[in-house]
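Q: what sequence does this backbone want?
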């Protein structure tokens, strides 16, 4: 049986990972174009998103531990 809460938490984690990938690709473009200002802006956002990833994965682990799914 599927667990709706686990699915929700997994979707959140996957979304955050997708955002991190997108930002990483944008940083590559900034490096190629030598856009230092945007590179630093993206870096700050990446740090924020890494925190979101940690929270999302932590919630998923905690749910799995408590719920057994």
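A:
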């Amino acid at each position: 049986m599927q667990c709706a809460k686990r699915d929700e938490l997994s979707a959140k984690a996957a979304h955050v990972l997708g955002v991190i990938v997108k930002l990483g690709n944008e940083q590559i473009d900034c490096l190629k174009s030598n856009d230092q200002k945007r590179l630093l802006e993206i870096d700050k956002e990446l740090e924020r998103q890494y925190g979101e990833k940690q929270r999302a994965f932590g919630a998923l682990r905690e749910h799995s531990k408590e719920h057994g799914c």
